[in-house]
Design goal:
The chain is flat. The chain has about 350 residues and is mainly alpha-helical. Helix 1 packs antiparallel against helix 2. The chain contains eleven helices and no strands. The termini are far apart. The chain is about 70% helix and about 0% strand.
């Protein structure tokens, strides 16, 4: 193995380790919230109840475990950034996401401190989760890029399914944000029954019940988009890595079906803590599969069985492609998840309900 390949293997392993720890931290953060352990260390931060090793009752143990895992995530991300800067400083495709992960880590730490100091305001908790999901996505992109050969710089031609992949990923992020709002504003029991809301198609005339109902409708819409996406991708050819794209798409669909099943059981059983934690875990797994789908899709060419031939006049008028090749950019792997039009929708539909109080 070449030195470059060995370096990439180290970065890939660190990024995958950071991704696994970040995944676990998100789920553990849900355990903190669901068990009411968010103030298990009082208003002290970064120590716990004024001590670094306090007596451990159950809420304190849960909260301080969350902080310990957060420390491990921090070490992993710092290591990812250090390796990227030291050994891959001339590879923008690796340095940019590694640096962005470090920036997002700093933001996450500050949000964690604010969450404790302000005694768990819902809008900060929701922002904390959203930033964690984006940080997880950046770490995944870093790991996936580090798994590519060092000389793989050519970007395949854009394919017809890409806009649908973007839209599905953006919708998935929107569902996560609405789910966080539903949980943090305690709206989970305002829309009983499944799939109907209190036995009716429309929710009661209550803004929090409407929030819960909107989360459900977006989840069903996401399922529909995922089914359409899998159907379209299944008809593609075998060129340019389409087998990997199909595998990722099927994972998204399978996990989404499981997630809706967990949600139904959770509502019908009046939100038992174990199912609430499972709901967050599977939802995070859906997000991971969406990020991987975005990445695989960005590396797949136009795999249609019979590519259309350009008319002579159109071919003559088309601009000649430059001799150079495109380098992978973070925009193709991550920013497309929240491209400007999609992020505008997310901001309009999610930020406002955060400031609504019952």
């Amino acid at each position: 193995m070449t030195a470059a390949g060995s370096d990439r293997r180290l970065l890939r392993r660190l990024a995958w380790t950071g991704s696994a720890l970040a995944f676990g931290l998100i789920v553990l953060g849900g355990v903190v919230r669901i068990t009411g352990s968010g103030m298990g260390c009082g208003e002290h931060w970064p120590n716990c109840n004024g001590e670094w090793f306090p007596p451990l009752d159950l809420p304190t143990l849960i909260e301080i475990s969350h902080r310990w895992v957060a420390a491990l995530v921090s070490v992993a991300i710092i290591a990812v950034a250090a390796v990227a800067w030291k050994r891959h400083r001339h590879e923008r495709s690796l340095v940019v996401p590694a640096t962005l992960a470090l920036v997002l880590l700093i933001i996450q730490v500050l949000l964690g401190a604010i969450t404790v100091k302000l005694t768990l305001p819902p809008w900060v908790v929701i922002t904390h989760l959203a930033n964690a999901m984006i940080l997880l996505a950046v770490l995944l992109v870093t790991a996936l890029r580090a798994g590519e050969p060092a000389d793989q710089q050519r970007t395949p031609p854009r394919h017809a399914a890409r806009p649908l992949v973007h839209l599905t990923a953006g919708l998935g992020f929107l569902v996560i944000l609405f789910g966080a709002q539903t949980a943090n504003f305690n709206a989970g029991l305002l829309c009983l029954g499944f799939p109907l809301c209190n036995g009716q198609l429309l929710p009661p005339a209550n803004h929090l019940a409407g929030l819960h109902w909107t989360h459900r409708m977006l989840a069903f819409l996401f399922l529909g988009f995922t089914i359409v996406l899998v159907s379209r991708i299944s008809r593609r050819g075998e060129t340019e890595g389409w087998a990997r794209v199909r595998t990722a798409a099927w994972w998204v669909l399978g996990l989404t079906v499981v997630q809706i099943g967990v949600a139904a059981a959770m509502i019908l059983n009046l939100l038992p803590p174990a199912l609430r934690v499972l709901h967050l875990l599977v939802g995070t797994a859906v997000w991971v599969s969406l990020v991987i789908l975005e990445f695989r899709s960005s590396r797949a060419g136009d795999g249609s069985p019979e590519p259309a031939e350009a008319e002579p006049a159109e071919a003559a008028a088309a601009p000649t492609a430059p001799a150079g090749v495109h380098k992978p950019s973070l925009a193709r792997d991550l920013v497309t998840l929240t491209k400007p039009r999609i992020i505008s929708l997310l901001l309009v539909t999610t930020i406002a309900p955060m400031f609504i109080t019952p």
